[in-house]
Every structure is written in C-alpha cells, then in structure tokens.
Amino acid sequence: MINGRHVLLGTILTEIVTINQGIDIGKQISFYDYFCRWVEIYKEPKVSHVSLVRYETTEKDVKAFFGNTYIKDITRVQYQDFINHFGANHAPSTVQKINGFIRACVKSAILDDYLIKDFTQNVELVANKDRIKKVEYLNLAEIKKLRLWLTKNLNPDYTSRYMILTAIYTGMRLSEIQAITWKDIDINKADCKK
Q1: Residue 155 CB-density burial (10 A; 0-12 exposed, 13-18 middle, 19+ buried)
Q2: Cα–Cα distance, 106 to 99 (Å, whole number)
Q3: SS3 (DSSP) at 70
Q4: Average pLDDT, the chain
Q5: What radius of gyration, in Å, describes the C-alpha atoms of the chain?
Q6: Residue (of 75, 80, 38) closest to 59 by Cα position
Q7: Which residues make beta-bridge pairs with 91?
Q8: Which of 113, 130, 135, 146 has the fewest beta carbons closer than 10 A?
Q9: How confident is the model at residue 153 (pLDDT cuts 50, 70, 90)?
Q10: Angle at 45 between CA 42 and CA 82, to 5 degrees
Q11: pLDDT the model gives residue 135
Q12: Residue 96, strand partner residues
C-alpha cells in the first residue's frame, strides 16, 4: 500500500523533472573546461588568428576568476561580480567583447543541457572609461604628406611602406593587404582582386 509520503515524494520528483525539462542535472563540467571545448569546436575552425587569441585570453580570464567551478553552479550574481572585477581594468569595448563571447558559450551550454538558465541575462556591463583609446585619423593634408614621403623613400627592404601606400590608395585593411598574393594582382589592368 502506498502511503502519503510516497505520493508526496513522487509528486516532488515529477515536479523536479518537469522543472528541469528532462535535463540531466548530474551532468558536470567546469565553466573553464566547457569554454575551452566550445572555443575548440565552434570558434577555432572558423575565426581569424587575432580573434582566436582573444578567445584564448578570455579562457585565461575565466580560469582566473571561476577556477574549476561547475558551469551549472554559476549564478547571475557571480557572473556580475566577474564583469565588475574585469571591467574595473578594461575599456567598455573589451568588456562588451568578453561578455559577447561568454554569452554565446552559455547559450551553447544550454543547448548541450549543461544549464537550464542563462546566468549572463540582464547583467550590467561595467567598464573603466579611462581605458578608452581615442583614435585620431590623419587629415587629407597629412595623408598627402605621408604619401609623398613614402613614394620618395620606397625600398624593397621595407615592405611596410608599400603596404601603407596600398592602404592609402585602396582603403584595404591591414589583414587584406597582408593576404595579397601575386595571383591577386593584374599588372596590365592595374587591378587587385582582394
């Protein structure tokens, strides 16, 4: 015969399963290990070297703050504390980037059934505004002066001068200029296919 305790226990267990939406709450991995694996699987194959270095730096930041804490044990309060700590010494753009990386990782962890809730939701980004670097661009007169100097001082031993001229004439980014090969250049048409 089933007594009231068994019925109550059964009801509680049913509710827990419903609340967890069938997720195996016994599944455990540290936030750091999950983040590293996520970068390896989803980011490393498709991002540039510069972006990969940013992800690897984020891995170190996650390890330094969270250690071996299981991803499922991290709360919004802990994550906010991380953002506050990190933001104290970093510019707003850096805080936004690291938050973006971690949010994407957490969404993946939810899909992989390591988490039920997104602990990055509605966290306030905190940053050190003194760390903002103001970029000052050359005006037209300065560009003309630079172009003239570069043209007069071209030397095959200093490829950076050619690269700067290419940027001035084409508006290409550094990474695009670095990727140019001879097969991209049509000398007869004075054209570059990058």
Answers
A1: exposed
A2: 10
A3: strand
A4: 88
A5: 26
A6: 38
A7: none
A8: 135
A9: very high
A10: 45
A11: 81
A12: none
**Inter-residue contact 126 to 88 (CB < 8 Å):** yes
- The CA distance from 161 to 150, in Å, is 6
**Distance from CA of residue 110 to its chain's centroid?**
18
Which one-letter amino acid corresponds to residue 171? G
Q: Rounded CA gap, 169 and 128, in Å?
A: 37
- Which strand (E) or helix (H) includes residue 191? strand 191-192
Reading the block at residue 129, the tokens are 């505004």
User: Which tokens sit at 22?
Assistant: 């069938």
Beta strands in the chain (DSSP E): 185-186, 191-192
Where residue 192 falls among pLDDT bands split at 50, 70, 90? Answer: confident
Q: Quote the tokens at residue 133.
A: 């670097």
Amino acid occupying residue 160: S
Q: For residue 100, what pLDDT is reported?
A: 96
Instruction: Count other Cβ atoms within 10 Å, centred on residue 14.
Output: 10
The token pair that represents 62 in the structure block: 């996650």
User: pTM of the entire structure?
Assistant: 0.64
pLDDT at 189: 84
